[in-house]
Amino acid sequence: RAHSNPFSDHQLEYPSCPGDMNWGKLYPYYYNDETKEMTKKVTIADIGCGFGGLLVDLSPEFPENLMLGMEIRVQVTNYVEDRIIALRNNHIGKYQNVNVIRGNAMKFLPNFFEKAQLEKMFFCFPDPHFKQRKHKARIITDTLLSEYAYVLKEGGVVYTITDVEDLHNWMVKHLTEHPLFERLNEEWETTDKCVSIMRNATEEGKKVARKQGAKYVACFKRLPDPTII
Amino acid sequence: MSIIHPVQSVVSSENEQVIYTVVKNMLLAYKKSEAKDSSYQLVGKWIDDTAIGGDNQEGTNNEGIKKAKSNEGTAVSKNGQGSNMSTPSTHAYIRNLTLSKNEDRLFACTDSDKAIIILDIDFENMENCLNLVKRQRFPKRPNAIAISNDEKTIMIADKFGDVYSMDVDAPVVEKINDEVEPILGHVSMLTDILFKESKNGKRFIITADRDEHIKISHFPQSFIVDKWLFGHKEFVSSINAPQWKCNLLLSAGGDDSVFFWDWESGKLLSEFNYAELVKPYLTEQHAAPSRFQNEANDVVEYAVSKVVSLENLPYVAFFIEATNVLFILSADLENNTLTLKAKIDLPGNVVSLSACKDAFILSLDNRDLGNSNFVKFIKFNNETNDFSIDEPLSSQLDSVLVDSLKTNDSATVESNEIYPLYNVTSLKKHGEHYS
């Protein structure tokens, strides 16, 4: 299935709060059996990670960061799980810093991540939800951006890429209007290695490239909170 | 047999001198005069004229339209038509009756046209103290409202998860879909909202939803999320901020406990588990729907409908939907715990609950009780150090209610034509969608 309704009551597993999350199960290399603590926290999230292409390419580039893909479609999540298991088996010691969970990031992101935990959030080729009345189902909305800002640390980056120009304009508009985000310029985009990985790594990105379609990129920096009135 | 429709909600002025009730699609105000031992009199009435059609309601519509015209003008009657067509099952329910702090305004939500209504209260007007001054429609059904401390702004939490801020005195916005953006939102149905000021004078909005979440956002900088309060495993249906200390918060819903929080620090102070207490009061009405039943047929589903607190005394009251008991808890502000203070058995199921300075006021599902037991006042008695029903006061209001409504065609219904009185437990999620 290409779509999943983010408003439905899915059969989902999620921790009741970030402290209850069993991260050791996803990243056993970073779990200290003696202290029962993780030695690292997830700092990169790929929201709607699809088939996991971005995660797989980011993994060797950011060996010091733990990365989590979140995907709402069950079969797709199962595929990514199998893909990561295979990669870990075939490359001993590698790909230990990436994993995936099935989840609804629009509802339960704060159940997984603490305030200011994340450094980067990726939104690659999200569902465009073309119809006007479905716009609240889009992954970038004014009200959700406040929640993304909560889990992102100051200076953290939101990456977006899409082949749908209308959706691109929508995401740029809402991120630009949000007081806690500021767009990063093209020069920054050309020097950031995540941007080039994002353009080329994802399955969706490759599909668009084969069709020689356009890819629209926009990246935004998390600004500090203003003084509370 | 026709009966007077049960009271769906009731709120009181600080000293119980004025009682506001919702009966079907009507708001009714009853007031005692200043004289000692005086009794309640009907002093105000407002009817939601956008009531959804139906033979038995024609009288209501005509009467209502006349009233609405004198109050507000054409926008009101225009609104009704669309909802008539598209949602035949909608009732002209009036929800979330809220009295402003200085008791000069009533706020409520109307299901018929998804609007917030604001009524001025003027006791100088001997004919009718209630006067509709604003009716603002919203894109989705408002589920809860909160009023800012200066009473100039109200926050509206809707069924779709969005919160809108509305200037009380601003003119009605006609094209709300195009002109007004939500100030914050959840991707889940919102069930309750509070406006709070912290110790150091910062303002916050607290919102509760069907996904177990309680979110705290700054105000007016509502784009800054302060924190979430994690702990609920089921939907949250009701939140309440006791007046005794500004950092306290109560919450309850589909869980077996009432939660007691320090919302400023984000700490769960304690829980009061009522699972055993409620057992004797559960009936076949609490059996889970058949598709969620087990073989033994003993899966029960229940939820707290409302939790409130007295303003002057450290007591909390809550009830479980479709039960005929009110639980009153005593709050220990030294150890931050809640303990059972009283169990008040009632002649019918509790339908609504509110609190004023030193009384709890509730309305009952009295459809089998022969036009009596509409409203109960529950008061703390200093001599016995316990709570009990103030029967004289309750029955006096009952008899005035009956007198004022028995010849009212709108309030008199067949017992199978009652508006839905139980709609909280159905918020429970069953995780039906697997993919």
From TrEMBL, chain B:
Pathway: tRNA modification; N(7)-methylguanine-tRNA biosynthesis
Family (UniProt): Belongs to the WD repeat TRM82 family.
Swiss-Prot/TrEMBL WD repeat ranges: 229-271
Domain of life assignment: Eukaryota
Function: Required for the formation of N(7)-methylguanine at position 46 (m7G46) in tRNA. In the complex, it is required to stabilize and induce conformational changes of the catalytic subunit.
GO (cellular component) term, any one: nucleus
Protein name according to UniProt: Uncharacterized protein
Any GO MF annotation of the entry: enzyme activator activity
UniProt entry keywords in alphabetical sequence: Nucleus, Repeat, tRNA processing, WD repeat
Feature: compositional bias, Polar residues: 71-89
Region (Disordered): 53-89
Keyword Protein biosynthesis: no
UniProt organism field: Kazachstania africana (strain ATCC 22294 / BCRC 22015 / CBS 2517 / CECT 1963 / NBRC 1671 / NRRL Y-8276)
Biological process, per Gene Ontology: tRNA (guanine-N7)-methylation
Keyword Chaperone: no
Subcellular location: Nucleus
Family annotation (Gene3D superfamilies): YVTN repeat-like/Quinoprotein amine dehydrogenase
InterPro entries: Trm82 (IPR028884), WD40/YVTN_repeat-like_dom_sf (IPR015943), WD40_repeat_dom_sf (IPR036322), WD40_rpt (IPR001680)
